[in-house]
Amino acid sequence: MSRDAASWYESTARARIGDLLDDGAFTEFLPPGERATSPHLALFDLPEAFDDGIVVGRGRLDGRDVFVAAQEGRFMGGAFGEVHGAKLVGLLRAAFEIRPAAVLILFDTGGVRLQEANAGETAIAEIMRAICEARIAGVPVIGVVGGRAGAFGGGGLIAGTCSGLVATEQGRIGVSGPEVIETNHGVEEFDARDRALVWRTTGGKHRALTGGADAFAEDAAAELRSAALGLMDAAAPFDAGTLRAEHDRLAGRLERFGSAQDAPEIWRDLGVTEDVPALDTAEFGAVLDRIGGRHGAR
Amino acid sequence: MSAADILTARREAGAKIASGKMVAAGDATRLLEAVLRPGDRVCIEGDNQKQADCLARALAGCDPDRVNGLHMVQSGVVLPEHLDIFEIGIAERLDYSYSGPQGARIARMMGQGALKVGAVHTYLELFARYFVDLTPQVALVVAVSADRDGNLYTGPNTEDTPTVVEATAFKQGLVIAQVNEVVDRVPRVDIPGDWVDFIVEADRPFHVEPLFTRDPGAVTETQILMAMMALKGIYAEYGVRRLNHGIGFGTAAIELILPTYGERLGLKGKVATHWALNPHPSLIPAIEAGWVEQVHCFGSEVGMEGYLAARPDIFFIGPDGSLRSNRAFCQTAGLYACDMFIGSTLQIDLAGNSSTVTTSRVAGFGGAPNMGSDPHGRRHPSEPWLKGAAEAGGATDPLLRRGRKLVVQLVETFGDKMVPTFVEELDAVRLARETGLDLAPVMIYGDDVTHIVTEEGIANLLLCRDAEEREQAIRGVAGYTEIGRGRDRGMVAKLRERGVIRRPEDLEIDPLDATRSLLAARSMRDLVRMSGGLYDPPARFRNW
Amino acid sequence: MERLSYGHDTDAPLGGDRADAIHGVVASGNLEVLMERVLPAGRCEVEIATPLSGYEEVWAAVVSDFVERVQPGGVRVSINDGGAQPDTVMLRLLQAARLMEGGR
Question: What is the DSSP string of B151-203?
C-alpha cells in the first residue's frame, strides 16, 4: 500500500509522521533510546512506553521546515502525562525560539492520564500558553484530528487554541468524552454506546459543518498533508481582531443552534438536507462549499 | 383426554382472552396462563439471532401456581427470562442447543441443581427430536408481521419458525406467535395462518442479535497470517468450493483476503463459490469481486437486508424481495452439501477433540457440530471429499472408500488473557465428570477433525497414522503453550518432512507479509462503500 | 511489572547498519520492541518488562527461538509488553529486526 493511501485512523503515531512529512527529513527529539519514560506509571504497576506515547521532532512538509508532535492513541488512550505533556511544551517553546514554518500537532488523545493527573492538567495549561506564544510569534499551530482516540479532554481544549484544525470523518473533537457525559448526565441524555450518535455529535463532519474544524479530509495521509498545508497558508494573525471575530462567530453559533437537541437539527438549519453520515468525502466537500462552511477565523 | 381434546380446551381457554386470533401484548401472560398446563413441553423460539422476547417476558410473568413443571425445548437459551422461569418454578427441564450470554448462568444453575438439562444438542439434532420424542405441545414463535387470519411474515430472519410450527401444529399442539405488527396483507406468507392459533402484537420489535458482524478494523496480523495459510494450504490444495465458515475473526479474515491474496493465488472461481452461511458483512468484498456464486442462509444479519435484496443472483430471495432463511435446511446443507467446515473453538485436546464449554460456561454449540462432522450418509463425490479420503488412506478398495469431509479448526494457540487453546484435558470432560453427565459436551470430535491451523502452521491429521503421530502433529502447531513446548522435536521434524505439519515457510508465506493491507475491506465504512451504500450496519459498529 | 532479561551468544551480527529501530505500540495484547546496535557483534541481550507474571518459560522460549532464527548479534533488545501473545511477540521481533536490516 502506498503511504499516501495509508489509513490515518489505523496508523501509529510514528507511521503517521513518516506518511505525512517529506521523505527522510524527520529528526526526533528525545527518541526512544533516550528512554524518557513516565516516572509515575511504575508506581501503578503499569507498562511504560519508551517515548511516553508522543513522538516529537522536526522535519519538512513540502520542503518547509516544520515541527511535529504525534500522539499514540493506543498507548493509554494517547493521554497526557508529565513527560508526554512536557515533550509537547518543549517543542512549542522551541518553535517560539526557532520559528519554523509551522507546528503540526497530530492529536490522538482521550485527555489527561488519570495516574498523573496533576502533572497532566498542568501540562495542558502550559501547552495552551505555549501555543498562544508561538502563534503570537507568527508560527501557525495546525492540529490534525483523525486518530482512534480523537481529541478529547485537555486535548479538545488544546485543539481549540490551534490556528487551524483539519479533521477526518473518524476524527472526533470534544471536551467531555461520550462516556463522561453518559456517566454525569445519564444514558437518556447521551448513550455512549450509540456510536452513530457519538459521531454525529463529535465527529469530523459535524465539527466541519459547525466550524469546530476548519478543514475536512479523507482518512489518508496525502489528503491530510494538503489540508494541513492549506491551513498553514490560511492562518490568521494572532491579534485582537482575529480573536474578536472568533468570539463573534462562536456567540452567533450559540445563539443560532443553542437550543438544538441533536445534530441533524443543526444541519437542517444550515440548509443541509442530505444524509450527512452517508456522504463520501467529495460529496461532503460539495456540501461544505455550498453552505460556505469553510471559514477562516480563529 | 385425547391430544385433540386438550388442543380444543386450550383454544377455548385462549379464545376468551383473544379477539379472533388477536391478543394484546398486555394480555399475553393471561393468555399463557390460560392455555398452558403443568408439565407441558413448550418451545419458545429464539436462537443465536432472533428472539420471541415479548412471549418470553410474558411466560416469566406467569403465576407459578398455575403454570409450572414445564419442559422447555428450545434452540437457544439467550434471554435472562429463559432461565428466570427455572428459578421461579415455572419450568423444570431443559433441552437446548445454543447459549451465548447465558452460558455462565447455566453452568452455575446446573451446579446448584436448579436446572435439569436433558442434553445440549446441535440445532439439527434438536429439530429432529421435535418430530420424534420432544414434540412441543405449545410453541411460542416470533415473526415480523401477521394478518388477521394468522398468516405470518418472518422477514429475512425466518430461521427456526417453519420447523417449530410444523412440529407443533401437526401434532395437536398450540402455536402462538408474537409479531411486530398486524397488517391487512403480509408481504409473503412464511407460515400459513391455519397453522397459527393466536397472535400477540408485541409491545416492541423483537430483538435480533447482529452475531455475525465482524469489524474488519479488528482483524489482527496473526489472523491474516492464519487466513493466508488456510487459503493456500487447504482451500487451494483441496479445491474447496462448497463450504461453511464459523463466526470468528479468523474466518472473517479469510473472507476478506479472497479478493486480494486469493486473487493473487489465482483461486477465483476455483474455491469458495458455494456457501451455507449467514450473510456475513465481511463476505461483501468477495461477492462484489465476483467470487461467490450462491449463499444459503441459516438466518439473516442486522443491516444486511438491503444488500441481500439487491443480490437475488447470490442469495435466496422471496417474491416479496426479501431474504428467506431457514436454519434446518441450511444446517442440512452444511452437513451434506458442503465439503468443508472451518471454524474456531476454545479448547483442543491431544486427540483433537474440541469444545467451547468450559467449567464456568456452558455455551452450547449451535451448528458447529453438524457442520464440523463427517456425514456418513453422504454418497455424492467431490474433489475435496475424495482427496480427503485418499489422504486418510487405509487398505480399503478405493471404490469402497468413504469420502472425507474437511473439518478444519482455525485457532490461535493462546486465547484471551493468555489462556492456552491446547490442553491435556478438555474442561468439558471435567464438567461431565463433576456434574454426572453421561457424555462430555464435546463440540467436534477428534476423529472428525482433519486439519488444525494455528499461527505456527497447519497440522494435517488425515496423514497421521496412529495416535502418537496425531498427538505430535497437534503439539507441533501448538506454539508456545505448555502442550506445544512439550513436543518431541525429532518427531515433529519428521512429521514436517512428510508434510503432516506445514509451516508458513513451507507454504512460501512470509509472516511479515501478513499485514492489514491484504484486507479487501479494512473498516466497516469500507464494507458499506463496497455494498454500494446498501449495507446499513447497526450503530454500535459505526464510527461515522 | 515483571522484569526479565536474557543473554545469548550469536553466530553472526545482525545485518544492515541502522543504529536503532523501534516497532510496535504498548497497547493491550501488543508490545513495543526497541533494538539498539550497542553490543559486541557476537552478543544479543533482551530485556523485557511485562504486566503478566508467570510466563518466564514462554518468554525464554520465544527469545531463544528468535535468536536462533535471526542471529541478531550486536543488538540490545528492549521490550515494553502490553500483554501480547507469544506469536505477536515473535512477529514484532522479526519486524523490528527487518527494520534494523534496512527494510521498511
Answer: -EE-TT--TTHHHHHHHHHTTT-EEEEEEEEE-SS-SS-SB-GGG--EEEE-S
Q: Please, which residues 48-77 of chain C have a Cβ atom closer than 8 Å to chain B?
A: 52, 55, 57-58, 61-62
**ipTM score here?**
0.95
What does the buried/exposed string (b/e) look like for C6-28 if buried means 16 or more CB atoms within 10 Å of the residue's CB? bebebeebbeeeeebbbbbbbbe
Decide if A256 is inside a domain. no
For residue B485, the chain C residues in CB contact (below 8 A) are: 57-58, 61
Kindly determine whether residue A197 and residue B523, on different chains, have CB atoms separated by under 8 Å. Answer: no
* Domain coverage including residue C19: 2-100
How far is the C-alpha of B178 from the C-alpha of B75, rounded, in Å? 17
Percentage of chain B beyond pLDDT 90 is 87
Distance from CA of A30 to the nearest CA of C (A): 13
Instruction: Tell me, yes or no, whether A78 lies in a domain.
Output: yes
Residue by residue, DSSP assigns B284-299 as HHHHHTT---EEE-SS
Q: How many domains in chain A?
A: 1
Burial group, residue A15, by CB count within 10 angstroms (0-12, 13-18, 19+)? middle
Beta strands in B212-331 (DSSP E): 242-245, 274-276, 294-296
Q: Which of A48, A108, A148 to mutate to test the interface with C (most CBs of C within 10 A)?
A: A48
- Is A50 part of any domain? yes
Whole-number average pLDDT of chain A:
94
Rounded to the nearest angstrom, the minimum Cα separation between B480 and chain C is: 6
CATH code, domain carrying A107: 3.90.226.10
Residues of A in contact with C96 (CB under 8 A): none
- In this complex, do C26 and A48 lie within 8 Å of one another by their Cβ atoms? yes
Give pLDDT, residue B24: 96
Average pLDDT, chain C: 95
Q: Please give the interface size between B and C, counted as residue pairs whose CB atoms are below 8 Å apart.
A: 38
Contacts of B1 (CB under 8 A, 6+ apart): B9
With an 8 Å Cβ cutoff, are A74 and C34 in contact?
no
Domain B341-502 sits in CATH 3.40.1080: yes
Q: Which residues of C touch A (CB under 8 A)?
A: 1, 20, 22, 25-27, 30, 32, 34, 36, 49-51, 78, 80-82
Mean pLDDT of A264-290: 94
Is C34 within 8 Å of A49 when comparing Cβ atoms?
no
- The whole-model pTM stands at 0.94
Residue range(s) defining the domain that contains residue A95: 13-237
Q: What is the pLDDT of residues A135-180, one digit of tens each?
A: 999 999 999 999 999 999 999 999 999 999 999 999 999 999 999 8
Nearest to B512 by CA among C104, A8, C86: C104
The nearest alpha carbon in chain B to C90 belongs to B511
The reply to whether residue B522 touches residue A10, judged by beta carbons under 8 angstroms, is yes
Q: Are residues B522 and A205, on separate chains, in Cβ contact within 8 Å? A: no
C-alpha–C-alpha distance, residues B472 and B522, integer Å: 37
Asked if B413 lies within 8 A of C61 by C-beta distance, the reply is no
Average the pLDDT over A102-118 and give the result. Answer: 96
Over residues B41-96, the pLDDT tens digits come to 999 999 889 999 999 999 999 999 999 999 999 999 999 999 999 999 999 999 99
Helix (H, G, I), strand (E, B) or coil at A141: strand
Residue B395 has pLDDT above 90, yes or no: no
Q: How many domains does chain C have?
A: 1
pLDDT digits (tens, 9 = 90+) for B399-441: 888 899 999 999 999 998 889 999 999 999 998 888 788 889 8
Q: Residue A285 domain-assigned?
A: no
The x, y and z cell numbers of residue A294, run together, are: 469553510
Per-residue pLDDT at C6: 98
**Residue extents of the structural domains in chain B:** 3-201, 210-338+514-535, 341-502
The topology (CATH level 3) of B3-201 is Glutaconate Coenzyme A-transferase (3.40.1080)
**How far is B484 from B333, CA to CA, in rounded Å?**
36
Q: Do C22 and A32 touch (CB under 8 A)?
A: yes
